[in-house]
Amino acid sequence: MIRKILFLSLVLAVFSCSAPDKQAKLESLKAEHDKIAQQIQELEKELGATGIADPPVNAADVAITDLQPSEFKHFIEIQGKVDAEENTQVNSQTPGVVVAIYVKEGSNVQKGQVLAELDTEGLKKALIAAKAEYDYAVEMYNRVKNLWDKKIGTESQYLEAKMAKDGFEQKYLGTLEQIEMAKFKSPINGTVEEIPFKLGQAVSPGQPGSSIRVINMSRVKVVAEIAEAYSANVRTGNDVIVLFPDIKQEIASKVTFTSRYINPTNRTFTVESRLESSLVEYRANMIAKLRINDYTNPLALVLPVNLVQNSMQGYYVSTAQKSSENYVVKRKLVKTGITYNGRVEILEGLQPGDKVITTGYLNLQDGEAIRF
């Protein structure tokens, strides 16, 4: 009994002594925790969102962009004109005086239709005489042939009669052909666009003002001359954007023809692009501007051309690079490619994700502290 009482007294004494010690220790840990938490907050404020310390007060203010691949296209821009696939000048084949005009400007005509005619009165009289001579020669030939078939007469008589018939036939057909050559016949279906002469006017093939213009606008194309320097890049099938400045229309098409001939006078070659005739009310010789796509890189690193600067070491781009405490300027030497519309392709020196300085890059020194 005495032992039990002593044991309980010892336990109570131990408990009464250890409880305050634990409480004191707990209070001490809490105070230390609050102090550490406050230090963490202060450090987070100093580091900020970038995970680095605030830059020095004299750091340069800049703006940056993360460089990412994008599609880059280069275009050749030239001026051309609209033309019809069938645009022809109808002439007579002989000189003469115009005695008949059967159409007017704006008339729809068919292939082979006679549009105008020259004076052929003299030829028509000659045709009548030639026809009479030919008919007589045919009659004489038939008589001689019938006798020759019966073995009457000589072979020379038969041959002379045949030769005479053939000769007068050629004379008759030649006169008939001369009359046909005095007619203006349309070689295509289309519309009469121009009749530069009047009745009674003398005309001659190949002379200005001596032909009727007929155009078929159902098939339309744009024609342009392009410098020889682009001959390696401009091919049939290249994409082209055709702009009509007067009617504010823009049409996507393709290059349908590239000439194999270089004009020795101006060192250019011809390119053509066919157009859908239903899209626009085209007119022959309408001005058109062509933007021919001669180069495309679907995953190019491209920058505004003004960001590429020059130094004794070569072309370079200013980038932002993370140092131990903040960001500093890092000049990177680059190799450039094609430039178009204020943008330049970067072939070497930069990688996707590089932070390129786009504002405040002038006069920055390599290693200079920056903020953005």
How would you explain this protein's 3D organization?
By secondary structure, this protein is α+β, with helices and mostly antiparallel strands. 27% of the residues lie in helices and 39% in strands. The protein has 4 domains: 1-47; 60-72 and 299-371, conserved putative lor/sdh protein from methanococcus maripaludis s2 fold; 77-82 and 200-296, Elongation Factor Tu (Ef-tu), domain 3 (Beta Barrel); 120-181, Orthogonal Bundle (Helix Hairpins). The protein has helices at 2-47, 121-149, 155-181; strands spanning 60-61, 63-66, 70-90, 96-101, 108-109, 114-118, 183-185, 190-194, 202-203, 212-227, 239-244, 249-254, 257-258, 268-275, 287-304, 309-311, 314-322, 327-333, 335-340, 343-348, 355-359, 369-371. Strands 3, 5, 8, 10, 11, 12, 13, 14, 15, 19 and 20 form an 11-stranded antiparallel β-sheet that branches. Strands 1-22-18-17-16 form a 5-stranded mixed β-sheet, with no helix packed on it. It has a 4-stranded antiparallel β-sheet with strand order 7-6-4-9. It is rod-shaped and about 165 Å long. The two termini are 83 Å apart. Residues 1-15 have low confidence and may be disordered.
How does the SSE layout of this entry go?
Blueprint: H1 2-47, E1 60-61, E2 63-66, E3 70-90, E4 96-101, E5 108-109, E6 114-118, H2 121-149, H3 155-181, E7 183-185, E8 190-194, E9 202-203, E10 212-227, E11 239-244, E12 249-254, E13 257-258, E14 268-275, E15 287-304, E16 309-311, E17 314-322, E18 327-333, E19 335-340, E20 343-348, E21 355-359, E22 369-371
Helix pairs in contact: 2-3
